[in-house]
Design goal:
CATH superfamily: Alpha/Beta hydrolase fold, catalytic domain
Largest sheet: 8 strands, mixed
Strand order of the largest sheet: 1-2-4-3-5-6-7-8
Number of strands: 8
Number of helices: 10
Number of domains: 1
Helix content: 25-40%
CATH class: Alpha Beta
Oligomer: single chain
CATH topology: Rossmann fold
CATH architecture: 3-Layer(aba) Sandwich
Strand content: 15-25%
């Protein structure tokens, strides 16, 4: 892991998140915010952040409230949901990155959940391009096999019982994502049970929020993703009806490896084959 500056960023009601900033040795070309997947702590993204800094960008990672370095107190007592993560946590991290990047362009790398919640971020207009990595709708019937044959048991049996028993979702104990605040787990369950995902599960005209995003979006997805099927990917990005979209779906053999999956993109072994070839060009348009 390279050098970084760690910062505590105030949110609301006395709460905070913790972010890390990886700065280039020379004047920055722009800033890149890496927005995490559900249950994934920010050290997972450190290799990519450090590499981006070596390429001349201020890169920032952060944890949502209740996750990783942003965990403070008991999860069962944390009153936060996914939209709070987007509207407050992501917004605060983006504002802090903007301050460090001055007037330079900002880019958003959203891993899975990080590409789903863009419409709920109030200052998303500061971003020049969104790059989604392995981002799909999460609707359980359209999940990749064999997950789609097990997901009903997770959402109808395991998740409700676990949250009722522990007061939060004990993902680490169950070896299913990470530990999640109770309202996050319940909201995510509602989204994954709805064919229209957040658009169908949330009150109000959420479809209009997605349609209001007009910033270009580049999607990178992978044929061996164990969670997201091609249909998941297409469904989620279809909600971004007015955003210019480029969709790229890669197979492991395209880059000469046996496996990429839902998480593999962020491994440093892909610095040349994926990061330099497929990610970096998205920051030059």
């Amino acid at each position: 892991m390279g050098d970084f500056t760690q910062k505590t960023i105030a949110i609301d009601r006395g709460q905070h998140i913790v972010a890390r900033f990886f700065a280039p040795a020379r004047e920055a070309k722009g800033g890149v915010l890496i927005v995490p997947a559900m249950g994934v702590a920010q050290p997972f993204y450190a290799d990519l952040a450090n590499w981006l800094a070596s390429e001349g960008y201020v890169a920032a990672t952060f944890d949502y409230r209740g996750m990783g370095l942003s965990k403070n107190g008991r999860l069962r007592d944390l009153d936060v949901n996914i939209i709070d993560w987007a509207s407050h946590d992501c917004a605060a991290a983006l504002a802090a990155l903007s301050n460090r990047a001055d007037e330079k362009p900002l880019y958003w790398i959203g891993h899975s959940l990080g590409g789903q919640i863009v419409p709920f971020v109030p200052n998303r207009g500061r971003v020049a391009k969104f790059v989604t990595i392995a981002t799909g709708s999460g609707y359980w019937r359209e999940n990749a096999a064999p997950l789609n044959r097990r997901a009903w048991f997770l959402w109808y049996v395991v998740a409700p019982l676990a949250v009722a028993t522990f007061g939060y979702f004990p993902g680490k104990r169950l070896r299913i994502v990470g530990d999640l605040p109770p309202r996050v787990a319940k909201q995510w369950r509602r989204w994954c049970l709805n064919p229209q995902y957040a658009v169908g599960a949330e009150p109000g005209d959420v479809r209009a929020l997605y349609a209001a995003v007009r910033t270009p979006i580049a999607s990178l997805s992978f044929t061996d993703d164990e969670f997201m099927s091609a249909r998941n990917i297409e469904s989620l990005h279809g909600f971004y009806a007015n955003a210019p979209r480029t969709m790229k779906r890669l197979a492991p053999q395209d880059v000469g490896v046996g496996r990429i999956g839902h998480f593999g993109f962020f491994r440093p072994e892909f610095a040349d084959s994926l990061w330099r070839k497929h990610l970096l060009p998205e920051f030059s348009g």
